[in-house]
Amino acid sequence: MSSLKVYKSIDATSSSCSGPIxxxxxxxxxxxxxxxxxxxxxxxxxxxxxxxxxxxTGNRVVVDKEEQGKxxxxxxxxx
Length: 79
Fold this sequence. Notes:
Blueprint: E1 5-12, H1 19-30, E2 35-41, H2 44-57, E3 60-67, E4 70-76
Family: Belongs to the sulfur carrier protein TusA family.
Protein name: Response regulator SirA
Domain UPF0033: 9-77
């Protein structure tokens, strides 16, 4: 995993509903293929939303960890 190139990191711990997905989507649009966007969210429902969004858009979750009550997810742009 040390070869991951994180294009942008988003702290969305204070956001919910569509906010984190909108931020993630915008960052992924700007990223190049094989670059990653890291997003940190505060609740399990938003974590699930990120995973579903990644699958629907053809991107890949490469890291999904719970750390100190928050969820750190890194999504790689595939196409």
